[in-house]
Design a protein that fits this description.
The protein is mainly beta. The protein folds into two domains: 1-8 and 22-81, no CATH class; 84-107 and 116-167, no CATH class. 3% of the residues lie in helices and 63% in strands. The chain contains one helix and 13 strands. It has one helix spanning 2-7; strands at residues 11-13, 18-20, 23-27, 30-34, 39-52, 57-68, 75-81, 84-89, 98-105, 108-112, 117-131, 137-149, 154-166. It has a six-stranded antiparallel barrel. A two-stranded antiparallel ribbon has the order 1-2. The relative contact order is 0.12.
Length: 174
């Protein structure tokens, strides 16, 4: 059941008639499952929630509260508190490029399934690289809060600083 919870929904693409699955894994020191409310509290040093498949994400924190649907086939939301580490892969942008985001936050990270967003709060530090990793694009972001929209493949931050490193052609000049 925990794998079903962490994996989210089984996705079926009707036009292609292919099945895609996600696999979830939860690692914890202690797990408290409230059957009536479909909530799970995971604690550990750190507690870890991983999802692999259609999307890739990993959430690590001392405490993660998970809100699931009644059948435990979908995570409606999750809130990690304390020193939080989030690693995720964005959806492809209009050019098909995906980005890997590795971030830490000192207060919390919240996943909202309905909005497909992850919001991190409290001295957030994020490194973002374009895939495949060729060295042509890399960014370092420091902010009080960032929100990643997983559907739109966008990141919003405020307030903070942003540094981008890009590869440039030397043009043969010395």
């Amino acid at each position: 059941m925990l794998v079903a919870l962490a994996a989210g929904m089984l996705t079926v693409a009707p036009a292609q008639q292919t099945r895609q699955t996600q696999t979830g894994k939860v690692t914890f020191g202690e797990l408290v499952w409230d059957f009536e409310n479909n909530t799970i509290v995971i604690t550990g040093s750190p507690a870890r929630l991983q999802v692999r498949g259609v999307t890739e994400a990993e959430l690590c924190a001392p405490r993660i509260n998970v809100d699931a649907d009644a059948n435990l086939t979908e995570i409606r939301g999750a809130t990690a508190t304390g020193s939080v580490q989030v690693n995720m892969l964005t959806a492809p942008d209009n050019n098909g490029k995906r980005r890997r985001i590795n971030a830490t936050a000192q207060e919390r990270a919240t996943y909202n399934q309905a909005n497909a967003t992850v919001t991190m709060v409290g001295n957030v530090v994020a490194d973002i690289v374009a895939l495949p990793e060729t060295g042509e694009e890399a960014a370092h972001l420091e902010s009080q809060q960032i929100t990643v929209d997983l559907r739109a493949s966008t990141l919003t931050a405020s307030p903070g600083s942003f540094e981008v490193t890009t590869e440039v052609e030397s043009g043969g000049q010395q």
